[in-house]
Specification:
Number of domains: 2
Order of helices and strands: HEHEEEEHEHEHEHHHEHEHH
CATH class of the largest domain: Alpha Beta
Keywords: Membrane, Transmembrane, Transmembrane helix
Number of strands: 10
Shape: globular
InterPro entries: AB_hydrolase_fold, Hydrolase_4
Distance between the termini: 77 Å
CATH topology of the largest domain: Rossmann fold
CATH architecture of the largest domain: 3-Layer(aba) Sandwich
CATH superfamily of the largest domain: Alpha/Beta hydrolase fold, catalytic domain
Protein name: Serine aminopeptidase S33 domain-containing protein
Pfam family, one: Hydrolase_4
């Protein structure tokens, strides 16, 4: 191979790498956020007794959410549920039903771009969305901070951890949290400089270490999406109680609405 040909090969390789990195930069949020954008049915048709509510964000979006109270009694506490990066609130209805059966009120939040909501998801946008949910519960439902719990599922763990720094709850449950988004991305895309390219950071471990609220971390022992070791790191940083479910993968039913998960939430209810 002549020197001229070698130079051309190197230039082509460099151009291909640059194009690959540029493509990742452009589409990365489509890889991170996997919403089901379809409108959801009326809340009561999925969860008897539930209400459709609207949340107004600080940047002017109206988001749909579902609110459910336990039947025939006052709630022992209210749980703000922030879901993971996929689906919409309809997929969290079984969790809401079981929490209500346990005597808790529940707000199922859908982020912008999820469940028929306007907008496109981003780290900044999700922070505004969860604050709209918090305002709804504390201002319209008059839930005192001492009776408010946060529940974060996977990506939602980052959302509620960041919220807890500004508005500490009575208790915080993190299900399958990651150290930060780059740490998960590096597991999925080991051939890319993920930490350098990411727009959205979600530094869960760093923020959790600054919290001083009762916390529980629930982790599946065979989670194939968020390495269990990362969830354990978050638990240690937050001085949280660790509930590990052996053999459970990220989206197994036991981690979606299983008895260990519900009991972990109940353990945070103030006495």
């Amino acid at each position: 191979m002549t020197k001229t040909v070698l130079v051309r090969v190197v230039l082509v390789a460099v151009v291909l790498v640059v194009l690959l990195l540029a493509a990742f930069w452009a589409v990365q949020r489509r890889l991170i956020y996997l919403p089901d954008p379809a409108p959801v049915p009326a809340a009561a048709s999925v969860l008897p007794g539930a209400e459709d509510v609207r949340l107004r964000t600080a940047d002017g979006l109206d988001l749909g959410a579902w609110y459910l109270r336990p039947a025939g009694r006052d709630p022992a506490a209210t749980v703000l549920v922030a879901g993971g990066n996929g689906g919409n609130r309809a997929g969290r209805a079984p969790l809401a039903a079981k929490l209500a059966q346990a005597g808790l009120a529940v707000l199922l939040l859908d982020y912008r771009g999820y469940g028929g909501n306007p907008g496109d998801p981003s780290e900044e946008g999700l922070a505004l969305d969860v604050r709209a949910a918090h305002r709804y519960l504390t201002e319209e439902r008059r839930v005192p901070p001492g009776r408010l719990l946060y529940f974060g599922e996977s990506l939602g763990s980052a959302v509620v951890t960041e919220l807890a720094l500004e508005h500490p709850p009575a208790g915080l449950l993190l299900r399958s949290p990651f150290v930060d988004l780059a740490s998960v991305g590096a597991e999925i895309y080991p051939y890319l400089p993920v930490r350098l390219l990411l727009r959205d950071r979600f530094p869960v471990k760093e923020q959790a270490a600054r919290l001083r609220v009762p916390s529980v971390v629930v982790v599946g022992g065979r989670d194939s999406i968020v390495p269990p070791s990362q969830s354990r790191e978050v638990a240690a940083a937050a001085s949280a109680r660790l509930v590990e479910i052996p053999g459970a993968d990220h989206n197994d039913p036991v981690l979606l609405d299983g008895p260990e998960l519900v009991e972990a939430v109940r353990s945070l209810v103030p006495r």
